[in-house]
Amino acid sequence: MSQKCQITGKKPNSARNISHAHNVTPRWQLPNLQNKRVFVPELKRWVRLRLSTRALRTINKKGLLSFLRDQGLTLKDVAH
Questions:
Q1: Is 19 among the domain residues?
Q2: CA proximity to 43, closest of 73, 27, 64
Q3: Which of 1, 16, 27, 78 could crosslink 6 through cysteines, CB 3.0-4.6 Å?
Q4: Has residue 27 been placed in a domain?
């Protein structure tokens, strides 16, 4: 399963660890992704999504369909 939020598109970022001696090693900063079932009251059904926690907070505030509309997506684009 890819490390990418289905709604926001958030994905891993390549970065570097830098030690006190200034040794540089590559590393990945992974997004905080969670598998979540979200209830859509308008459709009276559950939808499984892989979301970043930032997207989950926004869904709790606005609702799933409203947030998808703002992102230019439909439910068919993201539902499994």
A1: no
A2: 64
A3: 78
A4: no
Q: Residue 40: give the domain boundaries.
A: 32-80
pLDDT tens per residue across span 10-37: 999 999 999 999 999 999 999 999 999 9
**This prediction's pTM:** 0.84
What one-letter code names the amino acid at 1?
A: M
SS3 string, 13-43, reads EEEEEECCCCCEEEEEECCCEEEEEEEECCC
How far is it, in rounded angstroms, from Cα 35 to Cα 69?
21
Per-residue pLDDT of 39-71, as tens digits, reads 999 999 999 999 999 999 999 999 999 999 999
Residue 25 lies inside a defined structural domain of this protein: no
Distances (CA, A) of 55 to 1, 10, 34, 37: 18, 9, 10, 13
pLDDT at residue 29, as a whole number: 97
Please choose, from the candidates 71, 11, 69, the residue with its C-alpha nearest in 3D space to the C-alpha of residue 40: 69
